[in-house]
Amino acid sequence: MEIRSTTEKDLDLFVDTVHTAFGLVRNAPDEDGGGVLWAAYEMDRGVLAVAPDGRPIGTAGTYSFELTLPGQVVVPAPGVTAVGVLPTHRRQGVLTGMMRKQLTGLRERGEFLSVLLASEATIYGRFGYGPATYTGRLTVQRHRGSFHTPRSPRAAADRPSGSVDVLRRAECGALLEQVYDRYRRTQPGALSRPTHWWARGAGQPPVSRAPRYVAVHRDAAGVPDGYASYALADGTLTVDEIITGDDAVFTALAQFALGHDLVTQVVFKHVPPDHPLRWQLADFRAGEATGTTDWLWVRLLDVPRALTSRGWFADGELVLDVEDPFLGEHGRYLLSVRDGEAECVPTDAEADLSLDIRDLGAVYLGGTLPSTLVRAGHVAAHSPDAATRADALFRAERAPHCLHWF
Questions:
Q1: Which residues are annotated as a binding site?
Q2: From 63, 65, 124, 180, the catalytic residue
Q3: Which residues contact 283 (CB under 8 A, 6 or more apart)?
Q4: Do residues 198 and 206 touch, judged by C-beta distance below 8 A?
Q5: 180 flagged as catalytic
Q6: Where is the active site (predicted)?
Q7: What is the pLDDT of residue 160?
Q8: N or C: which end of the chain has fewer CB atoms below 10 A?
Q9: What is the H or E stretch that residue 198 is in?
Q10: Which residues, given as ranges, of the chain have pLDDT below 50?
Q11: DSSP structure string for 95-108
Q12: Listing from the earlier edge strand, what are the strands of the sheet with 329-338?
């Protein structure tokens, strides 16, 4: 078996192979080559596994994204995608070989982390990825969707003064791109959506060209500061995403959705587990949370660089003993944080926590508590207060959330 890098000449071969691996039918692109999932593939960043007889048997690709870390730090983040092995060649080391080739290549490019969405939760932990953000659905019956009047005087005073317009997706692509880009730079765990994704309609709504209505919120000056992409069918209004960095604007867009005529229920597809929307409903039980799941998985490739790149919100020190079984590496690091800045250096000091690289990826964005992994038996705490100190140190300014699909 040979595992090689791909070029633009491999596009059709790559696309056909990954479709076969997943049992999918390849749809025809639009006249401009867009409107399909692979329209944004970067063939200079892919790998192809080839059998001795020359047949392609596996694929793995990478997108060029940016990831927002705690502290509103924006860093390059390769997004792993299109990972598949033909059914005839599974459990023969093809995936392992591709993952090793890919991670080695990312390091050679100078990357210090990578991210992915896992089709199955049991696959990528062995390659060093850990679940770092979570999302879920919230379904609200419209007749139970009235909102409480805020009890806090400040919350009532902070209600946005603005307006909501309804547009069609086809007429507001540039606006969506601008609002999303402002949002993702302030939200830990959010990924960029490169311009060519929007232009080529690659991905899921509202990035794709699928028909959608878009409720656009504008502030008092008329500047767009949020949107909700939605579709209505058989009495269910499904909100693909609400994008805004302002909780009050989110509330206004949610109220718009719940006030829509000819609707029996509203499904909000991407809601963070800790979102206040349920608490804002007059009937707390009106919001049915379902489908809570992992979303963005993180893999650290350079531990000191990763830990000194994000922002921090508590002072302290931890000695982390980190095992990386897949790459055959081990390191012990002293993490010292003062005034939001971190130093991370090798040390021989006694460890506070012993953990796998996948566990460090899981806690990196602040979405998974180190103490949870200690209680689960994955992370070893070597002093009574180690887990508590780690929880305080790794927290983010807000829960990380990613809703971009790739």
A1: 83-85, 91-96, 119-120
A2: 124
A3: 144, 146
A4: no
A5: no
A6: 124 (proton donor), 406 (proton acceptor)
A7: 63
A8: N
A9: helix 195-200
A10: none
A11: HHHHHHHHHHHHHH
A12: 341-346, 329-338, 316-324, 353-356, 380-381
Residues 266 and 177 in one domain: yes
Give backbone dihedrals phi and psi of 28, rounded to 5 degrees, phi first: -80, 135
In this structure, what CATH number is given to the domain that contains residue 350? Answer: 3.30.1050.10
Tokens of 259: 């006030």
Domain end among 250, 274, 292: 292
Domain count, the chain: 3
Binding residues for acetyl-CoA: 83-85, 91-96, 119-120
Q: Are residues 207 and 234 in the same domain?
A: yes
Q: Are 47 and 103 in contact (CB under 8 A)?
A: no
Whether residue 181 is found in the same domain as residue 264: yes
- Strands 130-131 and 287-294, by their bridges, are unpaired
DSSP 346-396: E--SPPSEEEEHHHHHHHTTSSS-HHHHHHTTSSEESSTTHHHHHHHHH--
Task: Please pick, among 14, 112, 134, 406, the residue that the annotation labels catalytic.
Answer: 406
pTM for the model = 0.96
Same domain for 234 and 143:
yes
The residue range of the domain holding 326 is: 302-394
Phi first, then psi: give them for residue 79, nearest 5 degrees.
-105, 110
Question: Would residue 124 show up in a list of annotated catalytic residues for this protein?
Answer: yes
pLDDT score recorded for residue 155:
65
Answer yes or no: do 204 and 56 share one domain.
no
